[in-house]
Amino acid sequence: MTEYAKIEFEGKIYEFPIIVGSEGEKAIDISNLRQMTGLITLDPGYANTGSCISSITFMDGEKGILRYRGIPIEELAEHSSFIETTYLLINGRLPTRDELNQTSILFNDHSLVHEDMQIFYQNFPRASHPMGILSAMVNALRSFYPELQTIEEEINITVTRLLSKVRTMAAMSYKISRGHKVVYPRPDLSYCANFLNMMFDTPVKHYDIDEDLVKALNTFWILHADHEQNCSTSAVRLVGSGRVNLYAAISAGIAALWGPLHGGANQAVIEMLSDIQEDGGNYHRAIERAKDKKDPFRLMGFGHRVYKSYDPRAKIMKKMCHKVLKKLHITDPLLNMAKELEAAALKDDYFIEYNLYPNVDFYSGIILRAMGIPTNMFTVMFAIGRLPGWIAQWKEGADDPKWKLGRPRQIYTGPKKTQYIPIDKRCTQ
Ligand code: CMC
Fold this sequence. Notes:
By secondary structure, this protein is mainly alpha-helical. Helices cover 52% and strands 7% of the residues. Strand 4 (57-60) and strand 5 form a beta hairpin. Helix 3 (82-91) packs parallel to helix 9 (211-224).
């Protein structure tokens, strides 16, 4: 039986149905609110607004739960591969062995990038940020791969192209930015091994693929693969709702992810830790600054809109960080400082009161650094990982025959109607 919420306004009572999700989450369906009452809702940052109904990812921020298609992130991180998780997110179920093999073959078949794209790369100014380049290049893919005959074929092939080419493009931009020869994808290598090889193999030094690092990269990308209606995913859905092509929608997602409050936090964390270290290692000062409301400084890698307990991805990332550093015989002073900073912050009254815990980005930069990924490529690594989630969320919208154009309203507070004054009659002072 449907439950209703009642709103009383100007002496009248209006009823709105309650929508219940499969995990018992409840929402008031206010899609007819304005029509019935003349009112709209105001919710800056959409903190209380459900923008869609989705069956892809479930999060419980209070309990620190994250599941893709019902499967806990801890199980996927332990047992799955990035390609298998990608299949799960996009198709709604785990693949059979045949389907998984077929997916890998398709990714290999589409892994090359049009040679003409290298000219674009070479002409970006040297100081360009790789996220700006990636966003522009993903958008440009549309011009290189024009429309196909049927919508079904179009979607399948575009999704495959995007997933496969994005890692080639990321590695290519790194090589070109260093003035090195581009390394092409190899059909004998898996998705993650191929990426590491394209990044680090050189004509003078052969890159030995380390299976532990391949596993770590798989886990890293699985942890980033989806996170329901976050800033960049909402950007993909909103831009996509205008029926733009998928490349353009993903390009918008990449741009949104770039920000330091979102995916750009992984770069910002390492920069923050390095600054503290260069300044003598006094992390207590950083904590004090983060608490000072007159100081815009925030402790990067701490806090989350949804998680009000430990981010489950951060737990896995922290463990993996130790494993990777041990395996590579690396002692990173930033890791020790990160752990001390975390312990001090978690005991601090401000962080306790505001429920601020480490998020996925707090430890991820230390792993990426150990792998040899340059700091300005950290957010690109996040973007490659988030791609299956963006695609799955876009597809869920596109598969809905009632996918509505995203178009929020506003409360206007500007001037009331005012007259235009021709320039020669305006006060010149
Ligand atoms: N350090 C100090 N204070 C903080 C922090 C922080 N990292 N995060 C939140 N606060 C305070 C903030 O100052 C505010 O205080 P007040 O209410 O007194 O003004 C209060 O907590 C609420 O902050 P908010 O920005 O309104 O809340 P939010 O839910 O929008 O915050 C956040 C989420 C991620 C933007 C924020 O925690 C933050 O800026 N964190 C640092 C950046 C970061 O690590 N981002 C990565 C997020 S995880 C990756 C991803 O999925 O995008």
